[in-house]
Amino acid sequence: MKSFKKILLSFILIAFSFPVMAQVTIGALxxxxxxxxxxxxxxxxxxxxxxxxxxxxxxxxxxxxxxxLSLQPSYSQxxxxxxxxxxxxxxxxxxxxxxxxxxxxxxxxxxxxxxxHFYAVGGFETAFLLNYKLTSHEKTLPNQLSISSFNLAAxxxxxxxxxxxxPVLFIxxxxxxxxxxxxxxxIDKSYIPRVKTSGFKALIGIELPLAK
Amino acid sequence: xxxxFIVWLFFIVTFTGYSQQPPHALFxxxxxxxxxxxxxxxxxxxxxxxxxxxxxxxxxxSTITIPPMEINGLTxxxxxxTIMFAEGEITYQQRFTPWLSLNIRAMMxxxxxxxxxSLLYDGVNTISGGSIGWRIRMxxxxxxxxxxxxxxxNLSGNFINIKQFISDVIDGDPYASIIKNTPAMAxxxxxxxxxxxxxxxxxxxxxxxxxxxxxIREKESFTSKTSFLGExxxxxxxxxxxxxxxxxxxxxxxxxxxxxxxYLSMGLLKLAYTGSTDFDLGVEYLTYKMKLSNxxxxxxxxxxxxxxxxxx
Lengths: 212, 312
Known about the structure:
The structure holds two protein chains of two kinds. Chain A is mainly β.
C-alpha cells in the first residue's frame, strides 16, 4: 500500500510539474476489460472472459510532432471464469470465478496518423495486485491461490479522436498480452495452474491540452 | 501436383492475352527501383501498408514407417502410412504512418493420419492461434528497405492422442482425456529486408527470433526462422504479368514443425500474377523434411499454398 501511495504521489507531481512545458495533455479514461486468463487449464476445465471495470487518469507528453508518451495510472479489474465440462450436461458449467483487482500504470507511446483522428497506441502495462477474490456459485472460496502480486503486459491498440473544440473525446481498443505467469502451480494441484492474462480493453476518455 | 502447375501456367498465359494492363508506375504495393516484390505465405515482406493476406494450403508426407508400438502389453506390427496437412491463415496489416503499422495474424494448421493405423499412432494434431506486432520501417533507399517487427504470439496446440487415451483408460485414470491442449506464448523480433537489383530482379531476406513457451511443457526455448529469396518479375520488360520466386528457409518455429526444438529446411517455389495494382495472387510449392518423434525415417513433406493479398 505504501508503494501504491508513492506511485500516486509521483504521478500527481509529474502531472502538475509538466504544465510548465508545452504540448502536455491531461485527461481521464474509463471502459471495460474483456481480459481472461490464458494458459494451462485444470482437467476438464477451460477459461472464459470475466469482464471488469477500467478507470484512470492520463498525462500525455509530446515527444515529437506525431509521437506522445502517455502515462495512465488506472484501477483495473481483470479475472476469469473457469468452466467445467460435466458428463450429464451438454454445455460446460460455469463453476469458479476469479476477480483480480489491480492498480496499473500503462506506459504507452501514441503515434498519430496523418489524418490526426486515427492513432496507434502501444507499450507496456505494469500492474500491482490490490486484492483478489475466488468465488463459486456466489460463495467466496478461501484465498488459497498463490498469485503473483505483479503483472506485466504488452499493449497493442488503436484509437480514434473526436475534436470537441479544445477538449478531445477518444475511443480506444487495446489488446493486452500478459508476459509473466500469474501462477506457476502444477495442473493437478490448483484451480488455476500456470496462466497469463490476455484479452481486450475497450476504453473511452476525454483529454485536455494544457498548452496550445 | 504437376497438373496443378500446368493449369496455373495456362491461367497466367491466358490472362495475359486479354487483360488491360495498368501502367506499372501506378502500383501502390511493394515497389522499389521499379521492381514489384512478391509476397510469401510463410513470412512478411518488409513493406508497410494496409493490407489483408489470406493463405490456404494442403500437403502430405512421403510414406512413413511407423515402428511397432506397445499398448499395455499388446504389440502392433510396423506399418506404413502418410500424414496429411491442412493450413489456413489470415493476416491484417494496418498502416498508421509510412514507417509504422500494426500486424494481426490468425492461423490454424491441422495434421492427421490418412489411414487407421497412422491415425491411431499420430492422432489429429491442430495448432491454432495468432500473433500481434508492431512493424517499424528502419531504412528505405531507392533499392533497399529494412523493417523490424516486435510481436507476441499465442498458440494453442490440441493433440488428440488415441494411443495415450486407450492406455490411460486401461490404467484406470478417471480423468482420461482424448485431447491434450497445450498453450504456448512467446514474444520476439524479426527483421525483414528487400533489395531491388533492377526492375526485374529482387532479393528478400528475413530472420525471426522468439523466446517463450513451447509445446513441450516445463520448457521455455528460443525458436528462429531465417529465409532467403530470389525473385523475378517479367512484367516491366516483357509485359508478362508473371513473377517467379525461389527461396530457402531454416526454421524451428512450432507452427511449422508442430513439435518445436528441431530445425527443418524448407525449399520454396512461387508463381504469382503481378499484373494488378491492388492485389497479389500466387501459388507456392513448399517441400521440407520433417523430424517426427519415433519414426524410422524422417518423412518428406510437400505442400501447395494459395496466397492472396489485397492492398487498400
